[in-house]
Amino acid sequence: MTTRNLSLLKPTGHLTLGNLLGALRPMAAAQPSDDCFYGIADLHALTIPHDPAALRGLVAEMAALLIAAGLDDSTLFVQSRVPTHAQLSYLLECTAYTGELNRMIQFKEKGRGRDSTRASLYTYPALMAADILLYRPDRVPVGEDQRQHVELTRDLAIRFNNTYGPVFTVPELVLPAAGARVMDLARPTEKMGKSHQDTSGVIYLLDPPDAVRRKVARAVTDSDTGPDAVRSDRDTKPGVTNLVEILVACAGAEAAAGLTTYGALKAAVTDAVVAVLKPIQRRYADLADDPAYVTETFARGAERCLDVTVPVLSAAQAAMGL
Ligand code: AMP
């Protein structure tokens, strides 16, 4: 049986090299074997203050970039265009308790020190559970930071099934083997993130070669000048380790062999990153001339999502007495 693979990306910033190596590449690698559903989680971008025009722009850019990164063999969709997500979310809010939502780390962290937050920051774990349960996946591969969400999803599915009847598949949480973790070039102990305020250490997928060169040239290294200065050691050489890992992820292990100076390392990283981004940027530019392809791909994707999810929502509604 084909495995169903589901992943959602939040449009809260421009996609980065970290997103490409840590998420889009493994997502593309799953396409030949799995039935893949990849979504842009625009509803999840509304839990904190947002600018409507900026959100629309980020969703459009992300849609074209997912195709440019080669994900158009998958079912691609924008979450808000598949209304079953919001519909099931409400039913799951009626299954969840405030005690368990109070314990969610993101609510505690983003709400800390504020008198009040958007109510959706409190309830979004129910939407996330809906995002998953609608597709009845057997396994949900997520990073450690998402463990709590998937555990809540399992709890809600089990409670719903016990209370109203067996509607949902209870997914298993799987922590995938450590994937590429790209760190910020300017603060190499922090993850390269798309929502960072200071962007000097963040490489974006649409950065032109000059911007890549400038950011890599300014990347933090260390004062080691020995013959084996170019080596990986996350604890004592986080900046250099990050550059070596980016190089290996972009150009293969052999590209890092024989490098002895940070200048040579940075030149190799720049070339490797520019080479990886080039075909994506070329396809992105082509799509700007053919916007109908993006629109049609996502419209087709939303339709397929509805085909798959409407029966699950209907079963949940019927079980609850609606
Ligand atoms: P985020 O951009 O944090 O919403 O994450 C979207 C996806 O990209 C998730 O699968 C993350 O694990 C992945 N991702 C984000 N930033 C990085 C990074 N710096 N290195 C590796 N993977 C990342």
Notes on the structure:
By secondary structure, the chain is mainly α. It has two domains: 4-180 and 291-319, 3-Layer(aba) Sandwich (Rossmann fold), CATH 3.40.50; 209-285, Orthogonal Bundle (Tyrosyl-Transfer RNA Synthetase), CATH 1.10.240.10. Helix content is 52%, strand content 7%. It contains eleven helices and five strands. It has helices at residues 17-29, 52-68, 84-93, 98-102, 105-111, 119-133, 147-164, 209-217, 238-251, 262-289, 291-320, and strands at residues 4-9, 35-40, 75-78, 139-141, 172-174. The strands form two sheets. The chain has a three-stranded parallel sheet. Helix 1 (17-29) links the parallel strand 1 and strand 2 (35-40). Helix 3 (84-93) packs across helix 6 (119-133) and helix 9 (238-251) packs across helix 10. The chain is globular, with a radius of gyration of 21 Å. The relative contact order is 0.14. The model has no long low-confidence stretch (mean pLDDT 94). The structure holds adenosine monophosphate.
Features:
mainly alpha; Tyrosyl-Transfer RNA Synthetase; 2 domains; two-stranded parallel ribbon; 11 helices; 52% helix; binds adenosine monophosphate
Order of helix and strand elements from N to C terminus: EHEHEHHHHEHEHHHH
Strand content: 5-15%
Distance between the termini: 33 Å
Radius of gyration: 21 Å
**Given the C-alpha coordinates, what overall shape results?**
globular
| Highest-level CATH class of the largest domain | Alpha Beta
